[in-house]
Amino acid sequence: MVKLSVVVPFYNVQTYALETLRSLRANSRDDFEFLLVDDCSTDGTPEILEQAARDLPGAVLLRHEQNGGLATARNTGLDASRGEYVTFLDGDDWAAPGHFERLVAAIEGLGVDFIRTDHVQFTARERTIHRVPVGRRDEVLKPRDAILPVNRTNSVDYAYAWAGAYHRRLVDRGVVHFTDGLRTAEDRPWIWRLHREAESFAVVGLLGVFYRRGVASSLTQIGDVRQLDFIRAFDQVIEETAKDAEADRFLPKAVRTYCAIIAHHLAAKDRFEPAVARQLRTMSAAALKRLPQDLLKEALDSMDLDRSAQLRRLRRRMVSSSGKAAA
Taking the alpha carbons of 173, 184, 64, 123 in that order, is the dihedral positive or negative? Predict the structure, then answer.
């Protein structure tokens, strides 16, 4: 029986893939499988993965005929997985030796639906530790309780799929799957669904995943239209949370987070292509209009002056263009 499935999407990462694969070898165990998903790479990545499929114990190579993006590639791996537990790793990141064994021991010992872990972000020059924003460690907690409070960074803001492990029962229920086709912010609807629908989780202080920042080919570094998928991702968060039995509790947090992300992208608009920057403003204004207006006002009132002023200007422009009096 497979104890752990590790889903690893790859797309044009020939520079980093060998390091990622070496870290998988340092984590191999007879009951671990590594699902290597080639998302239609056009560089030397496919050849590297073909060699890994022959040499890496537990490797299973899966190929896409066309590029589908990270969310779809992860779903391909999830659908093929057989493990009692599932985790993720990106094709340009790496895991410390023995990390996955410690991960399995932690989730089995706590008996929860999923666990979350700390991680190390690194560039060519520095490494920084990032902690799960939950104070209680090694305790069984209720995921829904970790969505709040509204005005504090908490567990749903720590959306890294590879920073944890997930029980097979969540996979079989579709809770751990991603929204196909989302090119960015695919982890936002995912983390919210995880916290709304799972019954138990825990935070453990493992520092085994090393997350590479500043990769030139990463969507976070590319200012094209795919970045605007964050609008679709957060629309999904709002829509699904509004249907929750405790929507009154959770929607203020979802709305405030959406506003903060819109403000973040607007502040960084200079990295977008000019046409995309214009589309960003138009789509962001429309998104603000779709939000519950009472919750939007609460969110803007609670934010710092720079961000709230930026969003209020966008909102006034939106209201003015619709011929209504500004609030």
Answer: negative
